[in-house]
Amino acid sequence: AQSVTQLDSQVPVFEEAPVELRCNYSSSVSVYLFWYVQYPNQGLQLLLKYLSGSTLVKGINGFEAEFNKSQTSFHLRKPSVHISDTAEYFCAVTMAGGTSYGKLTFGQGTILTVHP
Amino acid sequence: NAGVTQTPKFQVLKTGQSMTLQCAQDMNHNSMYWYRQDPGMGLRLIYYSASEGTTDKGEVPNGYNVSRLNKREFSLRLESAAPSQTSVYFCASTDPGTRHEQYFGPGTRLTVT
C-alpha cells in the first residue's frame, strides 16, 4: 500500500515570492506521482505528473516538481506566485504500470494563500 | 467534450434518507472512481470500477453502494444517510494503461442533518 504526507497544511506567501509545497510518499513498489490543484468550489485539475525519465517535471501555470527517489519526495515549486495561485494543492500517488487500476492515494492537502 | 459531469451539485438529506449521486464521462475511459473529500483528510476512495461490469471497494466503502450502469455512467448510492456522510463527493475517470492521471467532475456537496 502507498501513503502520502503533505508536510504543510497551510502555506501563506506574498505575491511574487517563491514557494515550495512539500510532499513525501511511502511505497514498496514503483509509483507514479501527481500534483493536483483545487480552486474554491471546483473539482481537481492536474498540475503535473511524474511517470518516468527526467526527475524534474514541468507543469501548467509555471509550476514544477522534482522527484527524489532516495528521499521519497515530490516537492512542488514555483519561482514567483500570483494571487490567482491561491488554492488547495494535493499530492497523489498510484502504483506504476497500471496494476492498481489507477487508484490514487492522496495527501491531506496544502492550502496556499497568496497575499498582495 | 463535457468531460466528467456530476448531478446534483448540492443536496441536503435528513438522517435515514436515501439518494443516488450520478456521474457520467464522455472520454471513453474504462475506469471510474468515487471519492469523498473532508477537511484535512484529502480525498479518500470510496469505490471504483476498473472496467464496465466490475466494481470494487476502496478505502471507505461502508454505507455506500455503486452501480456501473454502462461504460459512461457510474452512480453512488447512500441507502440510509448518516451525518458522518456529510462531505463533498467527486467522481473521476481515466484509462490506467494509457492516461494515468484522473479527470475529475465538479463535485456534489452533500449535507446530512
- Count helical runs of chain A: 0
Largest sheet properties of chain A: 6 strands, mixed
**Topology, number of strands of chain A:** 12
Strand content of chain B: over 45%
What's the total number of strands of chain B? 11
Helix content of chain B: under 10%
Number of helices of chain B: 0
Distance between the termini of chain B: 36 Å
Q: N-to-C SSE series of chain A? A: EEEEEEEEEEEE
Q: In terms of per-residue confidence, which ranges of chain A show pLDDT below 50 for 5 or more consecutive residues?
A: none
Class derived from helix and strand content of chain A? mainly beta
| Overall pLDDT confidence of chain B | 94
Shape of chain B: globular
The most extensive interface between chains reads: A-B, 26 and 28 residues
Gap between N and C termini of chain A: 41 Å
Question: How would the global form of chain A be characterised?
Answer: globular
| Category by helix and strand content of chain B | mainly beta
Question: What can you see in these coordinates?
Answer:
- The complex is a heterodimer of chains A (116) and B (113).
- With 116 residues, chain A is an all-beta fold.
- Chain A has strands at 3-6, 10-14, 19-21, 23-26, 31-38, 44-50, 56-58, 64-68, 73-78, 87-95, 105-106, 110-115.
- In chain A, strands 2, 5, 6, 10, 11 and 12 form a 6-stranded mixed beta sheet that branches. In chain A, strands 3-9-8-7 form a 4-stranded antiparallel beta sheet, with no helix packed on it. In chain A, strands 1-4 form a two-stranded antiparallel ribbon.
- Helix content of chain B is 0%, strand content 50%.
- Chain B is built from no helices and 11 strands.
- Chain B has strands at residues 4-7, 10-13, 19-25, 31-37, 43-49, 56-57, 64-68, 74-78, 87-94, 103-104, 108-112.
- In chain B, a hairpin with a 5-residue loop joins strand 7 and strand 8 (74-78).
- The relative contact order of chain B is 0.33.
- At the A-B interface, strand 5, strand 6 and strand 11 of A face strand 4, strand 5, strand 9 and strand 10 of B.
